[in-house]
């Protein structure tokens, strides 16, 4: 994966991810941490939320990561495709370790942990020239 994409993902902390069931889409915002080695976004969310229920039924998800930059010349963001992960016991422990390292306050409201294994990223980076795109595919 392009180092520029890694750096950008690691410099942010909120993602939007979208699910789709029966031709109805839905999206959610979540704090995340990025597992670079495994190209996985890790986040907490309650099991009974609509987005988790839908992702468990259709694991193909998409989403975005961006910030609130208002200058068009500095605008950057990514769009991604991935596979929703329901971690096993070992992976759950690894995910919590990574997540709580970045967001220790999250321990105050225990929630289930999940992942999105990234398969495709398109990054738009206007700091490299208006409309400059960087593509990564796993």
Question: How would you portray this structure in words?
Answer:
By secondary structure, this protein is an alpha+beta fold. The chain has a single domain (3-137), classed as Electron Transport, Fmn-binding Protein, Chain A (Pnp Oxidase, Chain A), CATH 2.30.110. The chain has helices at 3-10, 50-57, 89-102; strands at 14-21, 24-35, 40-44, 60-66, 76-85, 113-125, 133-137. It has a six-stranded antiparallel barrel. The longest helix has 14 residues, at 89-102. The termini are close together.
Rg of Cα set: 15 Å
> What structural class do helix, strand and pairing data support?
alpha+beta
Poorly predicted residue ranges: none
CATH topology: Pnp Oxidase, Chain A
When the domains are counted, the total is 1
Counted by DSSP, the helix tally is 3
List keywords for this structure.
Pnp Oxidase, Chain A; 22% helix; six-stranded antiparallel β-barrel; 138 residues; alpha+beta; 3 helices
Write the topology of this structure.
Elements (H helix, E strand, L loop, with lengths): L2 H8 L3 E8 L2 E12 L4 E5 L5 H8 L2 E7 L9 E10 L3 H14 L10 E13 L7 E5 L1
Question: What is shown here, in short?
Answer:
Helix content is 22%, strand content 43%. By secondary structure, the protein is α+β, with helices and mostly antiparallel strands. It has a single domain (3-137), classed as Roll (Pnp Oxidase, Chain A), CATH 2.30.110.10.
